Amino acid sequence: MYNLARELLFKLSPETSHELSIDLIGAGGRLGLNRVLTKTPASLPVQVMGLEFANPVGLAAGLDKNGDAIDGFAQLGFGFVEIGTVTPRPQPGNPKPRLFRLPEAEAIINRMGFNNLGVDHLLARVQAARYRGVLGINIGKNFDTPVERAVDDYLLCLDKVYAHASYVTVNVSSPNTPGLRSLQFGDSLRQLLDALRQRQEALTALHGKRVPLAIKIAPDMSDEETIEVARALVEAGMDAVIATNTTLSRDGVKGLEWGDEAGGLSGAPVRDKSTHIVQVLAGELAGRLPIIAVGGITEGRHAAEKIAAGASLVQIYSGFIYKGPALIRQAVDAIAGLPRAGV
Fold first, then answer.
1. Residue 110 assigned as binding residue
2. How far apart are CA 334 and CA 311, in angstroms?
3. Contact assessment for residue 245 and residue 263, using Cβ atoms and an 8 Å cutoff
4. Dihydroorotate dehydrogenase catalytic domain: which residues (predicted)?
């Protein structure tokens, strides 16, 4: 059924197809149809960040930026759902066209630019959802906020989403917001992490619950830079690292139609690069901080590879677009087949 739906959706422009898919998945969730039309993955609960996940395969941020289809995605079998990236104020994102499919490579290039309806709209959608599983909310800065004041945007979003999120992801790695990736390094990173940690402590006291903070990083760092980031995250008391965002590399798509478009590349070509970052992080962190792996999972065995590399959880984005809900079940099954699965 999904293959037929994909064939029809792929006849539309990528962004139109994306918007229609969100509408359909959201409608299926409201009607309870998604649960009926898809096979439920095997039970594989896992505890990470002090949270109980139904299974270790989640939806990555970016597909449901505004939280419009939370129930629909949950009913497809994801063990957790991450929505966003959301910014303090609504913003249109970059000019269209800004989303490109490269089916020969099972890849996507996007330069969306954090297009979203703002944090208040997202919170209204969260409050309207019936889903009570693990919900991550991914936060970012507005495009016109100077990088030196980015912390203000992150803290504003954190204040608003804290009581409604199972965990909060801080996106400092999108390649489509000018200057954003500079926040991953040196004093800029440490100042941001310190501010987030202090605000987390204040919000914990205010709300009577501690919401974990995860930092999402890019795949385009050297091993030395990755190790430095890992050390900074541990020193600041962060709760998890998500590896990785999209890449600026064009390895694997050179010569393909749309392959030279600007933006972040996701899907199969980023798989090895992302897995390498996971391995480097795992070697440095040595279990002190859990890793959530995302990037290039287009078959179940790719999810198992991420876990074997040192991740505790995985997320899917581009693979879901190309393979549909069956990929969730295949990924859970592949992880379940690993020694000490879910530990």
1. yes
2. 14
3. no
4. 44-335
Q: Locate all alpha helices (DSSP H) within 103-149, ordered by sequence.
A: 119-128
Per the annotation, does 179 bind a ligand?
A: no
Is 190 labelled a binding residue? Answer: no
Distances (CA, A) of 303 to 97, 131, 241, 254, 287: 31, 24, 17, 25, 19
Q: Is 342's pLDDT higher than 80?
A: no
Whole-model pTM: value is 0.97
Domains along the chain? 2-336 (3.20.20.70)
Confidence at 1, pLDDT banded by 50, 70, 90: confident
Q: At what angle do helices 14-31 and 2-9 cross, to 10 degrees?
A: 140
- Segment 64-86, tens digit of pLDDT: 999 999 999 999 999 999 999 99
343 confidence band (pLDDT: 50, 70, 90): very low
The structure tokens listed for 271 are 């798989």
Lookup: tokens for 312: 């505790």
Active site residues: 174
Give yes or no for a cis peptide into 97 (omega within 30° of 0). yes
